[in-house]
């Protein structure tokens, strides 16, 4: 028996539940950042999409949280980015927010990184995601300078690291 009405499972990156949760994240981020980048050339939008893309050969783990009723409630990806490990695409579906799912997903990703002998885990978020920044700070992540591939396309990003 577990203490919460959800559990975290590993799935393939193309699992339909993972794809749907990422679609929900894209919709949420689109609303949060609408107009945030101002007028910009199409090349920059394309470069930003490239920086945010998930490449299957970089993915170490795709985790989703599912309820006891098997409803997909949250998602996170852990990927290798050069010599570092990066948390990507953290989302909790709106009906399930406030239940500790994001914290559980991040903790599970950190455990995988620790078991994989990563020295630290990094992540990129933004000013329009204050709840994310609060979560990371509360879990012991520290602010770091914006790193590649976000420097050119998202210089106002807020980046964090967690030393393992």
UniProtKB/TrEMBL annotation:
Keywords: Acyltransferase, Transferase. It holds the Pfam family Acetyltransf_1. One of its GO terms (molecular function) is acyltransferase activity, transferring groups other than amino-acyl groups. Residues 19-164 form the N-acetyltransferase domain. This is GNAT family N-acetyltransferase. PROSITE patterns: GNAT. CDD domains: NAT_SF.
